[in-house]
Structure formats: structure tokens, C-alpha cells
Amino acid sequence: MTAQLPDELPRQPMTGIADASWHRLHPLSPLVRAGRGLMSLLILLLGIAVLHRRQAGSDLYTDLAIIALALAGGFVSWLVTRWQVADGVLRVDTGLLRRDSRRFPLSQVQAIDIVQTGLARVLGLAELQLRVAGGDAARGGRLACLRLADAERLRRQLLAMAALAAVPAVPEAQSAGTGNQAISQAQAAVGSERPLFRVKPSRLPVAIVASRAGATALIVAVGTVLTAWLSGNASAIAPFLPVVLGVVLALWRQLNGEYGTTVSAAHDGIRLRSGLIQTAAETIRPGRIQAVRLVQPLVWRALGWCRLEVDVAGMRQRREGQAEGQRLRALIPVGTRAEAEQMLNELLGDRPLPVRRAPQAARWKAPLSFHFLGWSGDDRYVVASRGRLCRQTTWVPLEKVQSIRWVQGPVQRMFDLASVHLDVAGKRVTASIEERDSAEAVQILGRLPDLARAARRASRS
């Protein structure tokens, strides 16, 4: 779909969106969107220029021309990109040779998140990301970038308009101020929050060190030091440097992504904010949680700590070059059991506990984790627990179950055991009812589909 750019675009700071006028992104948006790619290009060209400093000046001119072309491309991209909100639809137009015009009906908006990279925070900018039902976030459901204050105000306005989209239209006979009053009330509702959890900054680094990632880092560090000591040559650790760098980056990503995590209950769902250098503010709308997992590593249990994660269907953001969808969202990166119980009550309400223990035959199949194998269920949830070194308890809403699998391996056949797995749309969590008697597993497999269908019917009514 093509459209012509208007002759003039507003040059004053954004004050509202009710006038349906066209707006441009911030002029520094290309710099933020380029991110590490642009910085890598500059560093590469700088290194080339230093290596060629003794050669003819034409090489320097070539490097400068490449930088100028990159900057010119970013400027053109900014120049031909505009956005507008009119008639309950967010419209984003972009492209020079190939025009691209996208429409995002606010009535289908699932959530609107604000994301700041490290460079964006320095410049006071933020990216607005829209999650639309059935939409692909990677194909333009975002405004990158706006001033932070403008992004926050626009988010509130868009969410308020989305909330009003389901309200019947106001008759024309009513006063014109009725619509504005309704929007103001909706904005106030969207803006109100009830705090649920805030991670302690002093606890998070200790928890990361005491986790599996910390244990891996310790093993790598000890191995590197022993290699250098036994060989008597520091250069012998060169082959380990990529591994060391990978471990350090993994620890940094976890610290950067989970630092300062705050969770609040709001009118539009659960609001989650986190980040040290790169920050993100997102909203988990009701009904989007596919599964909830309580994780209790061995060392954490001695300290009375645990971790609470949720699997959410929908858009996957990017953080520090890694898709966020590759990890579960941690509502509680590390907290006490009481904090986890409070959050579970908020998310699930009354829920079953894994009180149905595994049969005695499972002791021979899983001697270490036998005491921690359990499951239970009601007409709304199925819960399953497993693991000894890292105990995991998973709750899955029956209305979210996509498939149910009955599995029996060769060792399980020897002891007449089987497992039942419940898969959800998130595809990153599976509730595994492990090591049950074959007859019980068949009974579970026969009952759960009917319970899941009943739960879906109840959720639609």
C-alpha cells in the first residue's frame, strides 16, 4: 500500500494524538536502532584507518565515504517514516523506493511495552512496542524511537483508547465532552498500579553466582587457572578465552535483564519492569500466561530462596542481541517463598499442590528424584513437580493445553511405568507427570482432554 508524505509535518513536541496529525520519530532514532551494528562499523573503520595511517590519504576518504553513506541511509529512513493515530488505528508508513504502510487496530492490542537500550537511555529515548493479537512484532509493530516522556504518554493514551474500543459508541446527541471524559477516566485506570514485588539488588548477584550459571562460571575459571598454572605459560589459556567470554556474557545478560525487576498489578494486567543498562517495561495481559513455574535450586533452598517464571505467548522482544523468547519471563528472579506464594495467589488463586506421589516402582527408575515426583489437578489447573538438585513445580491452566502425550521408554516398560506430558502454546514449558503406573497414566490420558475442553468452554462463557 502506498501513500504520499505530507508537505509539512509537525515540528513541535508531541502534545497529544487526538488530532490525528502525522508525526515523525526522533531524529536520533537511526542511531539508536543501529545500536551495536553502527558502533561495530565505526570501530572497524577506525581500526582500518589506524592501520593505514602511513598510506595515501585516499583510504581515509574511502572510510569517511562509507560512514557518510551509513549516516545518510539512516537519515533517509527517518525522513520517510511517519506515524498517525486516527479512527482507532495506529498507522505506520515507511520506505522510500518500496513504500510500506501498516495498520494496527487498537481494539486488537494485547499490550504496549516501552524498551530502552543503553544508548537510548543516554539519549533520553525509548522504543514503543505493540503486541497485537495474531500480529508479528518483527514486522513493524513498534515506534523506535520517541522521547521517553512522549513514549510514556503515548502508551497511556493508546491503552486508554484500546480499552474504550470495546465500549459501545456514544450517541451523537450527547455532549462532545463525554468522549474526552471517558478517555481521561480510562487513562487514569491504566495508570494506576498496585505493587506486588521488587527484587533486592543485593540478593540478585549472590543468587546468580549460586545458580547453575554461576557454577559453570566457577568451573571454567578453575579450569583456566589450573591450565595456566600447570603449563607455566599464561598463553596456554588462549583456547579457553572464547569460553570464558561466553560465560561472562551469559552472567552479564542475566544480571542486566533481571536487575531492578518490579512487578505491579494494573487495570490492563501484570506490569513488569526490569533492566540495568537496557531497560524494558511490558504488560502481561490477562489470559496470556500459558504456564507458571516455581524453581528451587539446591543452594537456594538452603537460603530460603526461589524463582518464579511464566511462559507467555505472543511477541518476543530482543535484549542485548538475544531473543527474549529464548528464556522464560522471571516475575521473581530471586525471592523468598512467601513472596512467591503471594505472586502465585495473584496469578492463579486457588491452585492444586503436587500431593500425588509417585509409586514405589519409580524408586528404581529415579532413585534420586523419587521423593520430589508428584502431580495433582482440578477443573482449572494441572500441577507437576520433579527434580532434586533443582526442584521445579509447574502449573498449567487446562484451557491453555494444546496437546497431551503418553510416553513410555524402555526402562519404564521394565517397571511398568509411563509419563504424561502436557504441552502449551508457549512451547517452552511442559508439565510432565513423570513415572506413574501405566494404568494410572492411561487413566490420566483419558481424563485430561475432557477437562481441558470443559475449561476452554468455561473461559469463553
Tags for this entry?
single chain, 461 residues, alpha+beta, PH-domain like, 3 domains, 7-stranded antiparallel beta sheet, globular, disordered N terminus
Overall pLDDT confidence: 81
What is the overall silhouette?
globular
Portion in helices: 25-40%
CA-atom Rg in angstroms = 27 Å
Q: In terms of structural class, how would the helical and strand content be classed?
A: alpha+beta
Percentage of β-strand residues? 25-35%
Q: How are the strands of the biggest sheet laid out side by side? A: 6-5-4-10-9-8-7
Distance between the termini: 39 Å
Total of domains: 3
- How many β-strand stretches? 22
Query: What's the main sheet like?
Result: 7 strands, antiparallel
Short description:
The protein has 461 residues and is α+β, with helices and mostly antiparallel strands.
Structure commentary:
Helix 2 runs antiparallel to helix 3 (58-79), helix 5 (148-164) crosses helix 6 (177-191) and helix 8 packs antiparallel against helix 9. The chain is built from 14 helices and 22 strands. The protein folds into 3 domains: 29-166 and 176-191, no CATH class; 197-348, no CATH class; 356-460, Roll (PH-domain like). The chain has helices at residues 29-34, 36-51, 58-79, 118-123, 148-164, 177-191, 203-209, 212-231, 241-258, 298-303, 337-348, 362-365, 410-414, 438-460, and strands spanning 82-86, 89-94, 100-105, 109-116, 125-132, 142-147, 193-198, 262-266, 269-274, 279-284, 289-297, 305-312, 318-319, 322-323, 329-336, 356-357, 374-377, 381-386, 390-397, 401-407, 417-424, 430-437. A hairpin with a 5-residue loop joins strand 2 and strand 3 (100-105). It starts with 28 loop residues before the first helix and ends with a helix. The protein is an alpha+beta fold. Residues 1-15, 135-140, 169-176 and 315-326 have low confidence and may be disordered. A 7-stranded antiparallel sheet has the order 6-5-4-10-9-8-7, with helices on both faces.
